[in-house]
Design goal:
mainly alpha
């Protein structure tokens, strides 16, 4: 499994959890571990996101956008992966799963850049 495939699987699991309020059944240990790490830090992650949003509320983000931003924020805060790589991956996942009008990835990019600056 590539790093991007891992990220996509975690984003989808976070999306399901947020949308349905039920833990998804995760078979891949890497996906399960990263999902659990993000969920353990969710309040801290959400605080970072909220503090970086400009005239926007966290609950206004779609479930999938929220999942993408939560994972990227977790990675920027708690891993050694270069922040630019994390942001680029989040943008690509946004384009694949959430970019209905070719504008969402720009919003996600700006939000993640604000989060990066705040770290």
């Amino acid at each position: 499994m590539t790093r991007r495939e891992l990220r996509e699987q975690v984003v989808l699991a976070l999306y399901i959890d947020d949308l349905l309020k039920t833990l998804p059944k995760l078979k891949n240990e890497k996906v399960k571990n990263l999902f659990n790490e993000v969920k353990e830090k969710e309040l801290e992650i959400d605080e970072l996101i909220i503090s970086s949003l400009e005239n926007y509320a966290l609950n206004r983000l779609s479930f999938v956008d929220r999942a993408i931003v939560r994972l990227a924020t977790y990675e920027m805060k708690f891993t050694e992966t270069p922040k630019g790589v994390i942001i680029n991956e989040a943008i690509e996942i946004t384009k694949k799963y959430a970019d209905i009008d070719d504008k969402q990835y720009k919003f996600t990019n700006k939000l993640l850049d604000n989060i990066k600056k705040g770290l």
